[in-house]
Amino acid sequence: MVTLETPEAPVPLTPLSRWYLYAIHGYFCEVMFTAAWEFVVNCNWKFPGVTSVWALFIYGTCILIVERMYLKLRDRCPVLLRCIIYTLWTYLWEFGTGLLLRQFNACPWDYSEFRYNFMGLITAEYAVPWFCASFIVERLVIRKTLRLRFHEGPEDGWSNHRSDDGGGGTARGTVGGGRRRERSRGAANDANGYLKGE
Questions:
Q1: If we measure between CA atoms, which residue out of 138, 16, 11 comes closest to residue 67?
Q2: CA separation (Å) from 120 to 41, 99, 102, 112, 115?
Q3: pLDDT per residue over 45-95, tens digit each?
Q4: How far apart are CA 182 and CA 198, in angstroms?
């Protein structure tokens, strides 16, 4: 006879886990944006994307705060207004972090060559890109990240399956085969799809 223990309910990602995902997203997007910029301006087919390690902290923290704004504002104002608020916050955060890093000669960006820059730390030319980025962050990154769950059962997700026949007969073989078949199908009923393979 095969018995199944009831698995523990999956839990949401911790703030630190979400911060990590947001940081990686921002870091990746900056590399891709600078590579595209280099191609458009200089037609450089090498697509050299650049960023700074500081971007991990800057983007991770900025988007985590945007996440809190989204949760507070989603039922109070439309998405376009929210994105304007996110854009204003992004300018404020970029200016503040840039000003702080500049005190240590560590600010990795300088907009002094742009016509509508302020102190070389922010520039109005980036308003549309920041607005579009805010829209993408809310609709595709934050909303999806908030749906992710950790499975707090056994590490491999299958150790709750037991056989009490005492000898590993047909029931055990059936369970083992079932486990292999489930894994081959991607374990679709796991909460977030992250299941450790053999």
A1: 138
A2: 20, 10, 11, 4, 10
A3: 988 898 999 999 999 999 999 999 999 999 999 999 999 999 999 999 999
A4: 13
What is the spatial distance between Cα 138 and Cα 72, in angstroms, rounded to a whole number?
A: 13
Residue with tokens 């390690």: 53
Task: Write out the E strands in the chain.
Answer: 2-4, 11-12, 117-118, 122-123, 149-150, 161-163
- Splitting the chain (198 residues) into consecutive groups of 10 residues, what average pLDDT does each group show? 62 93 96 92 89 95 97 95 97 97 95 95 96 96 93 59 47 48 44 38
> Cα–Cα distance between 58 and 91 in angstroms, integer?
12
CA distance 163 to 1: 6
Distance CA 31, CA 38 (A): 11
For the beta carbon of residue 49, count every other beta carbon within 10 angstroms.
Answer: 17
